[in-house]
Specification:
Layout lengths: L1 H6 L11 E3 L5 E3 L5 E3 H8 L3 H8 L3 H25 L9 E4 L4 E3 L21 H6 L6 H19 L1 H10 L12 H11 L6 H16 L2 H16 L1
Antiparallel strand pairs: 1-2, 3-4, 4-5
Helix pairs in contact: 4-6, 6-9, 7-8
């Protein structure tokens, strides 16, 4: 998806780290330097992502670039995780680097499956929203604009993405082995191919609003943070 977006000259500062399998149960995952979970950032910087950015980038000109990177990468991953139905999104499997790149880890639940009740369409938390400056800020408007652009670009390549998923149906991927046609169909539905680009933009903006206002997400995050603390 990152490559597809870039062919349309849309670089959303994504972080596609490498993975090498060495057996059906083992492998290597590329280490992403200078990255912190949002949960750790909240604990250290009083739930304020902007404080984290300022702490690691004291120069004003650097802060502007870091925030721009954060807005773009947040938009990219919101759209991609929505399309693929990535579940179990909590503050320990979303990371941010000191230069603003946000990215996801841990893809044990996909195609709409989630261990928690009432998951939002995508993980867009109040903390991310506030780091962008709130509803009236230019950064938040940019975020929504990038989400619309990314969604419509990827919709143009839906057949390629669905074909790749179909080829993976027999790969033994958890959440896909049982009724792969059903799971692939869910992804295809997420593309909303019957809509025009304008209608699709309104659709994905609605998913952003729904995710931001999801009450159960806040409850689940607090429960997860509490459970992690007692570990």
């Amino acid at each position: 998806m990152d490559r597809l977006l870039k062919t349309h000259l849309l670089d959303l500062r994504l972080t596609p780290y490498r993975v090498i399998a060495t057996s059906p149960d083992d492998g290597f995952v590329e280490f992403v330097a200078n990255s912190h979970t949002i949960q750790d950032i909240e604990a250290e910087h009083s739930k304020d992502l902007k404080k984290f950015f300022c702490h690691h980038n004291p120069k004003q000109k650097d802060q502007a670039e870091v925030l721009n990177t954060f807005v773009k990468s947040c938009a990219g991953y919101c759209v991609m995780t929505y399309l693929l139905g990535i579940g179990d999104r909590h503050l320990e499997n979303i990371l941010i680097t000191t230069d603003g790149h946000m990215f996801h880890i841990d893809f044990g639940f996909i195609f709409g499956k989630d261990p928690k009740p009432g998951p939002p369409p995508m993980k867009f938390s109040r903390q991310m929203f506030e780091a962008m400056g709130g509803a009236q800020s230019a950064h938040y408007r940019d975020f929504r604009h990038y989400c619309c652009l990314a969604f419509n670009i990827l919709r143009k390549h839906a057949n390629l993405i669905i074909t790749l998923l179909t080829l993976m149906a027999d790969a033994g991927i958890p959440n896909m082995m049982d009724a792969p046609e059903t799971h692939i169909s869910k992804v295809q539905d997420n593309f909303q191919l019957a809509l025009t680009d304008e209608e699709a933009s309104h659709y994905i903006l609605g998913k952003i609003d729904e995710s931001l206002g999801a009450f159960l997400t806040v409850v689940n995050d607090k429960i997860h943070s509490f459970a992690s603390y007692w570990k």
